[in-house]
Specification:
Two copies of one chain form a homodimer. Helices cover 15% and strands 35% of the residues of chain A. Chain A has an eight-stranded mixed β-sheet, with helices on both faces. In chain A, strands 12, 13, 14, 19 and 20 form a five-stranded antiparallel β-sheet that branches. Chain A has eleven helices and 44 strands. At the A-B interface, β15, β17, α10, β44 and α11 of A face β15, β17, α10, β44 and α11 of B.
């Protein structure tokens, strides 16, 4: 008698080579950017930068030329190695340049590459094989900002601003800096597009910088537990309706070592934003807003004297104006600049002259200009990125300044991330779409003709990838299209009912569904699909890239319209036979944490389980700049603050809600979540809670993995 | 055909009146002291106080005499009402005395009752029906301490110490008080039996008071979230091995308005404890310890000059000495006093004379004197409470000072809480035992004869009360008896397997099992028994009332021996057929939170679920006085601190562990739990966490209910 199991084993051995390989399963380490295997599973990339109109590939240890100045492929043409650079610079192991990924090429006419170590800035000539310039960098310096034109570097050390000249002399721009008097750093809590505090003039002869007096601002008491005992580490944090900081702008001249301050008047309750220079370095421009944010003025100042030259343009809006782009001068005409405005309902470009005369609207239509990428100088064309083709796409166009004629620079699908060459003749176009993992094209901006440099293979081949689809539903207003992404469980069985998690952000300035690879699905969604969940994401009204009316529908009552739209998403989910409407969960972070907590407390019979990260709980605890733009002050809008507060809704909580925060969150301070817990305790409801000591508003690195294990476990515990 | 359900309904209607009433189920509101119905379900009580040797019943609105001066019942003999007192005092509704529960009777010879309002101290003569003395009280005063002998009241206001004289003059004792320089309050973090900071001399002519300079102590950064923005509210908190505060003792004379400080020498790293007065008010005694706590010196000081008169007695112990009782003079002999010491292994009483000569040991044996209740002056006998009858009992005895002869004053069962009359001739003995809900006896201390004043009915009659039993197991040393309490589920079925929760404290100074009503079962245990859990509590080595060797077995490695003994409890549980060893949980608070976290991380395969409240995580974060007594300093005992730290064990966590703290815990500061979370996050383990903002080391009121709902839910979620 034949042994059956022996036979089975033999058959298996024979059959295996012919059978499909079982698909691999993702771990969180594969899917999240904090994970140990994340970068191994990313699409192949080509790290590039421009050397004039020549595209250069940056590698760790060498640089290679990809194209010539006419956009023709020469790839790979070797330029120089890291080792030769280090050897020529005489850099030892302690102070050597460690990678060429951050190299740049200041002059298209010279074989010069700029690199930096922690101790030096260097320019290396690979033709001459020697270092042609070097400049010391000071230990402890932060916020470094180098002008490659003048080779002066600005930086902050111990709260004061310094400039290191091209020949290595350190100049103290300020001496009275402190935690209360901050120089050379971003101000207004990074709102209004502000990301830094120093602004070199075009030729690098003058440095505009921010000065922020926040001595009058209350401290939010943060605690650092890494010392023994724990240490008080307060953050200056102006809460809605409370006293705000005062910002002024200085102009430092390294040649004279003198500073003048722009004579903008009393800075109390004013925002100075979007600093720009005239090409001749004589004029500094700012966009100025009162605290009410219902007016934006473009103001010119004399850079030498600080005198206020006048208001060039004023824009008002009964809700708010939200300028995020400094003016940009036409490269071929120093008397004309481009101003970006949402005044017709969508962000568009307007041509002004320096007298303040509006010459014409350069772009128009029911779409958003996402980015003024630059110019094709020769053709006198703008290069822009817009949502014209689809609200969830970002496509590139050349726009003639003379006649507004638009030339498409891509195939009209997907989302495109451009990098423009020096003259603007070529664009390196990195893009993806729901079906395209990643491509990099080199495109001539005059013609739109392109050559493909990279078509990345799917790094997830062989993995058990869920089906991810996109689509639209109608908003609660019955007319507006909302874009969604739907991720189905792997091994999907249409006859089953699956637990379903809505992931949400929902606030201004962000969107979650784009026509990128997999509709921009987040790694955690893939992970959840593997574990048998449906994941659904819809961008409600109030989110970004849809124009002013769409975004500002939420004005003065954040959360209300957003939730109505999310419930439309739930209605849609309930039409899907495989969605188990009795097992709906919701998860989001920051504004999405606010939405999650709000949905759990406002619609306690809809959602059974929620995980809210770093949530806003009451807008009165949020900061002045962002908060008052959308909510006005608590004094002006008491009903709005009261009705949107989740403290009053804490009593309605029925399902399982876990609130998770970074214990040292400086953005959405812990008081939000702690006050919510207190309200729940007083009301007798039972949220759950978790903190990451030492972390801020978001979790990075290993904590990101830990966090998502935690979020997943919570849904596994209570929704499965 | 007869309708069956109709018939059943009829039968039920007939049967119901004859059937046993279904037993009532407890809610947490019934069982916990923070609950709305807790006091309604407590045993009946009789609130009494002594008027000389006469026992008086205190009621809200009147006082009644219970016994006469010979101990004979006269109950109830009306004395006076609250209304007549308020009327005689001319007190209106705003400032009236609201209850007589806190009345006292300063003089057995006079019909005088002492009461207080927030604005006044009063003595009312109910014979004359008039107020015979009144003294203003100052708004904002705290730490009030009245000498009924001199009628001077000491109190603290805005960090300074004041005395209000009998005739209403306010004297400022100190003027430089602050958060850093604290006067008239308890010092040394309430260790060494210290509970207050003012000590009137016997006749009330002099006031000894503590002065604590804590300017050199680090702040622990606490945050009060009830303001907007949250407010920094630091606590001075000396952590193990770090710089401690400096305490001195002043003597204020209200007659001269002068203060002298006791000349005790440099107070750095010293403890001044157990302040006592000689009957003649000329001498002040303290027990003094160095920071190492291995020596106690009884030192006498001249109260008029502050001069150090000398050391009367010195006790040393290589582990620690732990004096918690000031010396007490014999009422009939001003030259002799009683000193309490554990020097023979158990707390006993020793007779000394004022030259420091040890006359004799008054009590001895392998039992603990729990309390020197007082004296029968006429019989020259001590009245004491001891564990002689059983380690888990507290029984009363009269002990002849002359010959040590002991007269039992109770039946030798249960735990007795005495209140002694002025001469010590009678004791009001409030007691319970596992089978006695509550009794109050009036006992003659000369003979031990008693009359019963109250036998409380079981307030839980009609409720579904679980079976609660007590017993002993052997400790991990194989010889020591450990006392346990076992609570079985209601509706117990011996053939079922039940989830089982170990409740634990385990630290010094506390015990959980006593021979009181239901073996001292906590309300939550009853609640859990109702929900189908077995609850088990065993007092491990290291806990209190068992003598020095038992307690100090844990010296320098807190947690280790304690856990070994708790595992003996688990071994015992596994012998019980109805205990499901695969579903063991553990819960404890404070030291019990340390034990719970430790057990979950040290024995991850034994316990599946734990809830740890306000846990110590690493003794280096605990304070100097308690921590260094049991652990020495981190500098002296680095291995002990390292090996007992739960930060290193965080990686072992397998089961479900929820850590819960009061967000403003000043005792076991939040850094413990936050550092544990950080360690778990770094190690990739997943504890749960919850906080009560605004709460300290323990939860009171409604939060106590919320907390126990939470704890219960956690076991229901993961252990059931």
């Amino acid at each position: 008698m034949i042994n059956k199991s022996f036979l089975t084993a033999v058959l298996l051995l024979i059959a295996l080579p012919f059978m499909a390989q079982p698909k691999k399963t993702f771990t969180l380490d594969d899917l999240l950017s904090g994970g140990s295997n994340f970068w191994n599973l990313q699409p192949k990339n080509l790290h590039t930068t421009w050397w004039g109109d020549v595209l250069v590939e940056l590698d760790v240890d060498e640089c290679r030329q990809i194209s010539d100045a006419k956009g023709r492929s020469v790839y790979p043409k070797f330029l120089f190695t890291l080792d030769e650079l280090n050897a020529a610079a005489g850099l030892d192991d302690k102070n050597k340049v460690r990678s060429l990924y951050y190299a740049s090429f200041p002059d298209g006419e010279r074989k010069e590459v700029f690199v930096r170590t922690s101790r030096e800035n260097l320019i290396y000539d690979w033709g001459e094989k020697k270092v042609v310039w070097r400049q010391p960098r000071v230990a402890g310096a932060t916020h470094a900002d180098l002008s490659l034109a003048s080779r002066c570097e600005a930086y902050v050390r111990d709260w004061n601003l310094y400039v290191m000249t091209a020949d290595g002399a350190e100049l103290a721009v300020t001496t009275d800096g402190s935690r209360e008097l901050v120089y050379g750093q971003s101000v207004h809590r990074d709102e209004f597009g502000i990301r830094k505090g120093t602004f070199w003039s075009p030729k690098g002869n003058l440095l505009a910088f921010y000065r922020m007096d926040q001595s009058m601002v209350t401290d939010y008491p943060q605690v650092d537990i890494s010392d023994r005992p724990a240490r008080y580490a307060p953050d200056k944090y102006p809460m809605a309706g409370m006293t705000s900081h005062k910002v002024t702008v200085g102009i430092f001249n390294p040649a004279t070592k003198q500073t003048v301050y722009l004579k903008a008047g009393d800075p109390t309750d004013r925002y100075f934003t979007n600093i720009a220079w005239s090409p001749d370095e004589r004029t500094v421009y700012m966009i100025e807003l009162p605290r009410s944010q219902d007016k934006a003025e473009l103001v010119a100042y004399d850079a030498a004297t600080g005198d206020r030259k006048g208001v060039l343009y004023t824009e008002t809006n009964p809700k708010y104006v939200h300028p995020q782009h400094p003016i940009v001068f036409l490269p071929w005409d120093d008397t004309k600049f481009i101003y970006q405005s949402e005044r017709d309902g969508y962000n568009h470009l307007y041509l002004f002259d320096t007298t303040g005369k509006e010459l014409r609207q350069l772009t128009q239509g029911e779409f958003v200009v996402l980015d003024l990428v630059g110019f094709n100088t020769k053709k006198k064309a703008l290069i822009v990125s817009t949502t014209e083709a689809s609200p969830i796409q970002a496509n590139l166009y050349a726009v003639s300044v003379a006649n507004g004629k638009r030339t498409p620079l891509d195939g009209g699908t997907g989302c495109h991330t451009p990098s423009l060459s020096a003259s603007g003749a070529f664009v390196r176009d990195l893009w993806s779409s729901p079906d395209v993992v990643r491509k990099i094209d080199l495109t001539a901006t005059a013609t739109g003709k392109s050559v493909n440099l990279l078509t990345a293979a799917d790094p997830w081949a062989g993995y058990d990838v869920p089906e991810i689809t996109g689509g639209t539903i109608k908003a609660a207003d019955g007319t507006t299209d909302l874009y969604y992404r739907l991720v189905k469980p792997t091994n999907f069985d249409p006859n089953k009912k699956y637990p379903t998690v809505v992931y949400v952000y929902g606030g201004p300035g962000i969107r979650n569904v784009e026509a990128t690879r997999n509709f921009m699905a987040r790694g955690w969604e893939i992970y959840m699909a593997q574990r048998g969940y449906v994941v659904f994401v819809v961008d409600n009204r109030g989110s970004s890239r849809r124009g002013f009316a769409f975004e500002s529908a939420t004005f003065r009552h954040l959360g209300d319209v957003e939730m109505q739209d999310q419930l439309k998403g739930v209605e849609f989910l309930k039409t899907l036979p495989y969605v188990d409407a009795d097992r709906l969960g919701v998860h989001g972070w920051s504004f999405g944490g606010f939405m999650t907590t709000n949905l759990m407390c406002s619609y306690p019979d809809v959602f059974k389980v929620g995980v809210a990260g770093g949530p806003v709980i009451d807008w009165k605890y949020y900061e002045v700049m962002y908060g008052e733009r959308y909510m006005d002050t608590p004094q002006e809008n008491p009903e709005g603050y009261a009705s949107t507060s989740l403290l009053g809704k804490a009593k309605n909580l029925k399902g399982r809600l876990q609130v998770i925060i970074g214990y040292n969150d400086p953005t959405c301070v812990p008081q939000h979540s702690l006050a919510f817990l207190r309200a729940c305790e007083d009301a007798g409801t039972q949220p759950d809670f978790f903190v990451y000591p030492g972390q801020g508003h978001n979790m990075y690195g290993k904590d990101m993995i830990h966090l998502h294990e935690r979020i997943t476990r919570y849904f596994d515990d209570y929704l499965k």
